[in-house]
Write a structure and sequence with these properties.
Layout (H helix, E strand, L loop, with lengths): L1 H32 L5 H27 L13 H29 L4 H25 L10
Bound molecules: protoporphyrin IX containing FE.
The site of protoporphyrin IX containing FE (HEM) has 29 residues, from α1, α2, α3 and α4.
Length: about 150
């Protein structure tokens, strides 16, 4: 159960990252190039939200199952335990909150340039957090645990 969930979680990361990259690229182009906020942008932001929340659910499941998530006196002193028990969940939830806010708050903005700007800034920051957190895991950026 743990490994199956880990493989899913590890794979969904690519869906999140690809959707984010496309969204950041399109919103930068829309913001600086004055493009409208079209159906593709709308669909992309829903897709990214679904992927991020799927990742959250899988992550919460893993949090309950992982041998690297421990609440003991030595957790904070041990690099691997600290990363998976505290740092990973904290950084990733922050990134998922930003992705969610990018969708909710951009919907309330009327002007296309404003929508693109909001999506660009929030998703770029979320992307930086995710990239940083994966780097910090020590498993390599494209690493999958087998
Ligand atoms: C966009 C959000 C997230 C991304 C991109 C992400 C990415 C990853 C990656 C790349 C791994 C390593 C997979 C492997 O070794 O094959 C991992 C493992 C894990 N993640 Fe996440 N994660 C995210 C969100 C979360 C959240 C929100 C939680 C907790 C609620 C979480 C909990 C875990 C746990 C417990 C592990 C397994 C640690 C172990 O191997 O023992 N993740 N995640």
């Amino acid at each position: 159960m743990f490994y199956l969930t880990l493989i899913f979680h590890s794979t969904v990361r690519y869906f999140v990252l690809i959707a984010m990259l496309i969204s950041i690229f399109r919103s930068a182009r829309g913001w600086f190039g004055g493009a409208e906020f079209g159906k593709t942008d709308e669909k992309l932001s829903v897709w990214l939200l679904i992927m991020a929340h799927t990742q959250l659910i899988l992550g919460l499941l893993l949090y309950a199952l992982s041998p690297n998530v421990q609440f003991s006196a030595s957790t904070m002193g041990e690099k691997v335990l600290r990363y998976w028990t505290v740092e990973h969940i904290f950084t990733m939830i922050l990134a998922i909150v930003l992705i969610t806010l990018s969708r909710i708050t951009s919907k309330k903005i009327a002007a296309a340039a404003g929508k693109h700007k909001r999506v660009f800034l929030y998703n770029t920051f979320a992307m930086l957090l995710i990239v940083m957190a994966i780097q910090m895991s020590g498993r390599g950026f494209f690493g999958i645990t087998m």
